[in-house]
């Protein structure tokens, strides 16, 4: 039964799906799909959107946070708090979970005017924002092209992210808010997370990379070194 539940979660990692779509894609019997989907919904692993379609639920984000209490997250505290204090912006760490990016650590700026949804455990779409671009830019081609479907950025943007080593966005998650993100790399130079600065344009300016890219890259290097030492 667990393998069938995993099939449903795999389909929903690509986006919302109706009961009919889940049945057609998985090849499972409709009563089986309905029973599993309702059980997962009761566990908050699934929920439903306004159209009644099944979508990944908030419990997945919570589980990702718990699973993320490792060397990276433990080491993030002093690094991101120091980054916040130097820049005056909120410093956050995101991991990718399917089609979502999950905030696993946040050092909030005193002003607290960054995106309200980006608290620890928040699971946000991979379709907009600097963190989403960084988490997707170095993925395998198949994953990358699938992630671009319906995204607010294109392949050219991700090529630029890979070339320059950072991504920035203005008003992607909240009007008047700027964001800058760089990758955190683990073993084999694989991107395992994105570290970001978020805050009002008045703090980060309309070109946050020009002012803060070096600061953010230094923080990402510290986090990476904590993983592979």
Automatic annotation (TrEMBL):
HTH iclR-type domain location: 1-58
Pfam families associated with the record: HTH_IclR, IclR_C
PANTHER family, A to Z: HELIX-TURN-HELIX TRANSCRIPTIONAL REGULATOR, ICLR FAMILY, TRANSCRIPTIONAL REGULATORY PROTEIN
Keywords from the named record: DNA-binding, Transcription, Transcription regulation
Superkingdom of the organism of origin: Bacteria
Domain IclR-ED residues, every copy: 59-229
Protein's organism: Streptomyces rubellomurinus (strain ATCC 31215)
Swiss-Prot/TrEMBL GO biological process terms: negative regulation of DNA-templated transcription
PROSITE patterns: HTH_ICLR (PS51077), ICLR_ED (PS51078)
Keyword Transcription regulation found: yes
The name this protein goes by in its record: IclR family transcriptional regulator
Gene Ontology molecular function: DNA binding; DNA-binding transcription factor activity
């Amino acid at each position: 039964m667990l393998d069938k539940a995993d099939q449903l979660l795999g389909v929903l990692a690509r986006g919302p799906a109706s009961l009919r779509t889940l049945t057609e894609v998985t090849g499972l019997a409709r009563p089986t799909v309905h029973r599993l989907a309702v059980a997962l919904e009761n566990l908050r692993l699934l929920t439903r959107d306004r159209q009644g379609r099944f979508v990944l639920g908030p419990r997945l984000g919570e589980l990702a946070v718990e699973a993320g209490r490792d060397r990276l997250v433990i080491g993030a505290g002093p690094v991101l708090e120091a980054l916040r204090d130097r820049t005056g912006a909120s410093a956050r760490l995101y991991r990718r979970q399917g089609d979502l990016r999950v905030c696993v650590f946040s050092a909030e700026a005193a002003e607290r005017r960054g995106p309200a949804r980006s608290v620890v455990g928040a699971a946000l779409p991979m379709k907009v924002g600097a963190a989403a671009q960084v988490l997707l830019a170095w993925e395998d081609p198949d994953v990358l092209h699938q992630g671009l479907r319906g995204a607010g950025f294109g392949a050219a943007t991700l090529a630029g992210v890979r070339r320059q080593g950072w991504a920035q966005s203005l008003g992607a998650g909240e009007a008047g808010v700027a964001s800058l993100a760089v990758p955190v790399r683990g073993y084999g130079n694989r991107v395992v997370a994105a570290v970001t600065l978020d805050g009002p344009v008045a703090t980060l300016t309309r070109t946050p990379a020009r002012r803060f890219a070096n600061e953010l890259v230094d923080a990402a290097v510290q986090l990476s070194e904590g993983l592979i030492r």
